[in-house]
Fold this protein.
Amino acid sequence: MRKRVVASVVFLSLVTTLLTFGLTGGVASARSIASTGRARAAAIGGCMEHYGGPNNWFEMGVCISDRNTGYIVYPDAYVNQQPLEPFNCSLYVELWDEGVKFSQAGPYSCTTGHYDGIPLVLGSGVGCFPLHTSVWISWYGIFYRIGDSPTFIYCN
């Protein structure tokens, strides 16, 4: 009898929550967040928000993830706030192993959106790498370092 009462209370609580917030409220909120291009959690990896550039007018998420592949590492960036003159700006997405740059993608425009770097395929049995993404911009020919993603150790 006690199990039925607990199950009934849990069910009633769930129904009350759905009726209070609406059946699609959570889905609509999640869709709105996803469509903004904000930095999001990665499979194995993560993102860091950065503000920078001249006069701190740039806001972006710098990320690294294996996107649930287990053997391909993807560097990427989400421009959440673009500069006032985005077409006089170029963005570069780099993948680093401590002090060694593996790749550089770009130049991309500095407009709001998602920008992928060049993915790195880890060969079988090659060991472990502490990898991170780094993002730079060139604005009117002057380079500014925006920042890095968290460093994660990827092994294969």
About this structure: The chain has two domains: 1-35, 38-155. The domain at 38-155 is CATH 2.60.40 (Immunoglobulin-like). The chain has a mean pLDDT of 74.
